Amino acid sequence: MREIVKLGLILLLITSAAAVVLGLSNAATIGTIEAVEAKASEVARKEVLPEAENFKTLEEEKLNEILNGNEKVLEVYAGYKGENIVGYAIKTATPGYGGNVEVITGISTEGKITGIKVVKHQETPGLGANATSAEFQNQYKDMNTSKEITVVKTQPSNENEIQALTGATITSDAVTNGVNIARELFNNKLSK
Question: Residue 185's closest CA among 102, 52, 69?
């Protein structure tokens, strides 16, 4: 009986020490992780709205109104060329197959989607993870924001349709839902 208690205490000490080490390493790296994610988001904003030279968050009051109205909207940036706004980069998160799919959508002031980028996901490798491919993401480019975008399993026959990823319709829907949220936000709050 004493051996079992002794082994249990040793195991408790080892797991406690491991938990402390993991906690300390997480605390030590959290700033670096956030900085890397912020840099990746900045690069993605430039990819989806290439005409913009720099990005600024919206005025605090307007940003709070948008973020409080929709928990699926994570960030909204205005893209500037000189002093003029050329468009917006909107980051959304919608549920996919393996978890939330975060998408940054670029929309020009003329109401055209300038690009999208899947920046974070937990989708199945080889299936849903293919949402990060340029071939899939380029389907959204130059679409008008006036019409809702839909996902089809066959070759698109209308200008507001994109072809789903083979074997990953849920992921295709998640990306499209994120783009549609950005599109609606632009139409209802930003284009006015």
Answer: 69
